[in-house]
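Q: Here's a chain of 383 amino acids. Please give me its 3D structure as tokens.
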Amino acid sequence: MLMKPAILLYGSSDKNRDMLYSTKFHTSYPFIIAIVNDVKYVIVGKAEISDARKKAVANEVLSFEDFLSYKDYIDMERRNNSPPSRLGYFSEVASSFLRQKGVKQVFVQPDFPFKMAQLLKWRGFAIKIEDSVPFFKQRLVKSEEELKFIRQSVAAAELVMGSVVEMIRKSDVHRDVLHHEGLPLTSEALRQFIKFNLYENDFVTNHPIVSCGFDTASPHKPGSGPLKADCPILIDIFPKSMKSNYFADISRTVVRGRASSDVKRMYDAVLEANELAISMVKEDVKVSSLYSAVHDLFKSRGFKTSEEKDFGFIHSLGHGIGLDVHEPPNLSDNDGVLKSGYVITIEPGLYYPTMGGVRIEDVVLVKKNGCEVLTSFPRSLEL
């Protein structure tokens, strides 16, 4: 049988999402995946072998010690007057496995450890970098199980978004500052509220955004200080399930009180752009056509963009979402094409240092003749 180049991945699946996708085995300890002639092998430490054999999706689960014990590796390196290292050990294990299978060439990820690659090359293996993101292209088309997980994350995001918006709606206003239970309502307090409420329901998020006023003119500024009445408040929540590891991503912009005429105009344009882009989503649509349509709409409504001066529509229209909060495709001016089963965000936004910013973000499932909007949280400006 003709030997195809093998695939070799190394790392921990809580950081390497391709390894998690391939094996469905979640661990913080490093392990090896080797795919040889379409047969998938998972090689783990002896402490994880029992768990991996129960949970990992693989044709065979092996132990590092099946090839070389760490003690024997240390002794070997001492005899060779070489300093031992963990990566050196994993390289020896991988080398022994690959030799047993008759492998001479392996494909690795761009972030495969350099030291391991060098040691494998020194042992006679040809290393080829597969420069694709994600490594497994099939990650982009979501299965029914993955869609279930994403829907669960969307529900969690919308639940906490509802609580945040309701807290803003019911806040008291004293000297233009929002108060909750007698205390100023701050960006920091609401971010902690978001994190705590998500954590209580087995979701996590690292850097939610709750910005206010001129802070909203910077798309990813987390926000700081008291929230104010009659000013835009931008809320961006992107939780990950601690059970499934799948993300959601939702943004809303609200005003407690009366929005200025400029903010109202921005909001109306962004909402129109959001609805226009969603109406265009279907299989085989070029992402550049979505981006251009939104860009042209903003221009026709009098909203100019200058990426050099950092105002206007200054980020992509959206992105894929799944095991990473940002996955391909990137919805901007590129050659990407939507495929049925992709899950993407649609998040047009406008940002001006003298007025603030507005963003409305929804999660959308691409279908053959259209799409399904997975988010259902209301889009309204004034509270």
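Q: Can you summarize the key feature?
A: The longest helix spans residues 144-169.
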